[in-house]
Amino acid sequence: MWVSSMWWPVLFLCAAFGAVFGNEVTLPVSVKFGDGLLSFSKNTNGLFYTINEQDGLTVENSISTGESNVARNNQEYTLTECSTNEEACVEFIINDVNVILKKDLSNRASSVSHVVVNSSTDGVRIGACVELGDGVDWFGGPEAKYQLWPVQDAQWNYTAYYTKEDDAVAIAEPYWLSSQGTYLYVNPATSMFIDQNYLNEGSLCIYAENVTPYRERNYTSLEYWIGRYEDPRTAHEAAVEEFFAKPTDVPDERMIAQPVWSTWARYKIYVNDTIVRQYAQEILDNGFNHSQLEIDDFWETCYGSLTFNTSDEKFPDIKGLTDDLHDLGFRVTLWVHPFINVDCTEYYSIAESAGYFAKDVNGTILTTWWQGENASVIDFTNEAAVEWFTSRLTALQASAGIDSFKFDAGEASWAPEPAVLTGNVEESPSIYTYQFARALATFGNGIEVRTGWQTQDLAIFVRMLDKDTSWTFENGLPTLITTLLVMNLAGYGFVLPDMVGGNGYIDGVLVSTQYPSKELFIRWLQANTFMPSIQYSFVPWDYDNETVEICRTYTELHEAYAPTIIEAMNALVANGTPVNPPVWWLDPTNSEAYNISDEYLLGEVILVAPVVVEGAVTRDIFLPNGTWRDATYGTYDIYEGPTWIYDYPAPLEVLPYFVESSYWETLSAGSGAFLPSSSLTAIYTSAILALLIQLFN
Ligand SMILES: *[C@@H]1O[C@H](CO)[C@@H](O)[C@H](O)[C@H]1NC(C)=O
Ligand SMILES: *[C@@H]1O[C@H](CO)[C@@H](O)[C@H](O)[C@H]1NC(C)=O
Ligand SMILES: *[C@@H]1O[C@H](CO)[C@@H](O)[C@H](O)[C@H]1NC(C)=O
Ligand SMILES: *[C@@H]1O[C@H](CO)[C@@H](O)[C@H](O)[C@H]1NC(C)=O
Ligand SMILES: *[C@@H]1O[C@H](CO)[C@@H](O)[C@H](O)[C@H]1NC(C)=O
Ligand SMILES: *[C@@H]1O[C@H](CO)[C@@H](O)[C@H](O)[C@H]1NC(C)=O
Ligand SMILES: *[C@@H]1O[C@H](CO)[C@@H](O)[C@H](O)[C@H]1NC(C)=O
Ligand SMILES: *[C@@H]1O[C@H](CO)[C@@H](O)[C@H](O)[C@H]1NC(C)=O
Ligand SMILES: *[C@@H]1O[C@H](CO)[C@@H](O)[C@H](O)[C@H]1NC(C)=O
Ligand SMILES: *[C@@H]1O[C@H](CO)[C@@H](O)[C@H](O)[C@H]1NC(C)=O
Ligand SMILES: *[C@@H]1O[C@H](CO)[C@@H](O)[C@H](O)[C@H]1NC(C)=O
């Protein structure tokens, strides 16, 4: 194990290419910058400057222009000192590339460097690379299909950093954090690309370049902050305070406590009145609770009509159906997407002639989505379009008895590119997502979206992008945890996990279905138990009675801990702290905690260690600093963390979890309502037996 407290990322910023560095420029060798050193070098790829920061937390000198280091014969170069008491600052211009470096000296416990590089030269690409470093773990970055945790081994091949369908980047906040307590935050209004482990192996590089999907601007700008703190938790708290909006409230509490039931994975597009009624009845007959029943794809006459198909084979009397479901105690929600297919002629032509579709620079409005080869997408940055869209939804709610909505898509990439959107050009195209989520959040805190960009303030659930029915890091069960952690680090703590067992797609074909195995289904639910909500589509009773019993148990356990989930959500509202943090959150200086990707916390009081490996019936568990009560088997044994428990027995029916000791005492002193009910005992009998066998072997 190699950890260096002296480690600090090296930045090289290369303003490369063409006109800028075509001329020979004589460079200064180095300039003192705060407590670090700024040095320049040049090679055939362009100009580089490097900031080498020493461990100088106590240094508070203002910037020296380092006159003695400046090559005076450089005509195209000027250096100015712009310091105040709070900031060390240096500005220099090389040809027309204007570089401003600022260093925050006001906070003695930290060191924040602020870098702005501006150029109005055409075709310029400005980059900054952070060396990921041996033995350093990195967290954050985008939501991704192949979701790792930590993320330093991820590969990104010079890719535009905005909300997009490709690689499942539905959340793209420009924020990374290292186990050394360093954060990198980039101005979201950047024509940003990232490259990791591709052009520069071992580095995370950010770039600004004015090419599609970004709109043309007459300058290129890269602005970022590097914050350095004693550990990742302190760094994250500082970053949240500085850059993230906190949610204004918590989402719908019934959606937290009781499962959402979606028709999607089980029925795909073959939904109708009969099927919905049958589904509802099965849920009740099997003794499960529900927050809502969601009617998913395909209920419309055509995609984008927002009109129920009232044929006999579909929904002949939707109001009658929702009335009956309401009588049974269900709320009814509806899948809605922002597209209109070209063959949905009546509605398409209204939106087209009114200019409601997102268009590219040439006025093209055609796009493609998973249920429409020829379609267009509503422009959510156009107020009139939003008004038209939302008023149709409101009318539909009234006429069809719909309580709330599941809003799909919403990533900026669905618009033809480069899209011409209303609003700040610098924020285009992700401003699409920003306005999408904001417009739809007006339907209340019982909605769900699946994308976010600078929308952490909204009191709504954000769903993980569709998960696949698999055991692998390629979008399978292990990524239920890693995606949870990444979303939380990006400030989105109201995570709606995708459906239990995944979507059951066969080879990515949306309308075919392959059930998850019993084992995968149960392990998936267990992993989901202490996440903010449970969403079913495949059902336990399609397996066997044991599955039903186990699933009922963990669904109940989730509900029993709903008050704890809400407490953690209130902490996010108040302080910006993650609802489901990684285990290092409670042990931020312990290097053993950093790379644990198969455990998570609920608030700071529950530690969850699900089995996510096929066939496994034991696992190793890391407990971070603190006193923990083993709640798994109801024995409440005490463990002092940090410690490892090796080969902890966890047969199929068992989810290992631990309760922080003082919280456990609070619960025990109370009504005990939070503690697992006695119905768990039966489930655990065989597990306890397994434990005994294990102990006596
Ligand atoms: C960079 O350029 C943009 C556009 O001209 C300007 O708005 C911004 O203030 C500049 N930043 C700095 C630090 O000069
Ligand atoms: C990145 O490039 C490498 C090498 O060309 C390739 O193997 C890999 O599939 C690419 N990854 C992505 C996500 O495009
Ligand atoms: C960019 O172009 C706009 C419009 O032509 C102009 O107002 C603005 O000053 C320009 N900005 C820069 C940094 O050149
Ligand atoms: C409604 O659904 C039925 C059955 O799938 C289909 O045949 C019919 O074309 C649809 N009706 C409309 C108006 O789209
Ligand atoms: C509803 O859909 C199911 C499955 O596709 C089908 O078997 C059934 O006939 C449909 N119900 C009606 C009333 O058409
Ligand atoms: C827009 O039209 C011009 C001229 O035909 C063409 O060169 C350009 O590629 C088009 N841009 C897009 C995004 O289609
Ligand atoms: C989409 O449009 C193209 C070009 O007009 C056409 O060839 C194709 O058949 C259309 N696809 C569908 C599903 O209608
Ligand atoms: C569950 O057990 C009941 C009897 O208690 C039996 O009727 C039913 O068929 C069983 N269901 C399954 C799915 O095994
Ligand atoms: C259903 O909800 C009730 C009341 O909140 C709760 O006591 C019960 O445990 C829940 N049952 C299941 C199977 O989740
Ligand atoms: C996690 O880090 C430890 C060192 O702290 C190392 O021994 C272990 O192999 C790492 N595990 C993984 C899965 O990378
Ligand atoms: C461990 O946690 C306790 C409080 O539970 C705290 O006082 C102590 O400083 C922590 N130790 C480390 C190494 O973080």
Automatic annotation (TrEMBL):
Classification via SUPFAM superfamilies: (Trans)glycosidases, Glycosyl hydrolase domain
Family: Belongs to the glycosyl hydrolase 31 family.
Protein name (database record): Myogenesis-regulating glycosidase
PANTHER family linked: GLYCOSIDASE FAMILY 31, MYOGENESIS-REGULATING GLYCOSIDASE
Domain of life, per lineage: Eukaryota
Ranges where the Glycosyl hydrolase family 31 C-terminal domain occurs: 576-660
Any one Gene Ontology molecular-function term assigned to this protein's record: hydrolase activity, hydrolyzing O-glycosyl compounds
InterPro entries noted in UniProt: Alpha-glycosidase_related, GH, Glyco_hydro_31_C, Glyco_hydro_31_TIM, Glyco_hydro_b
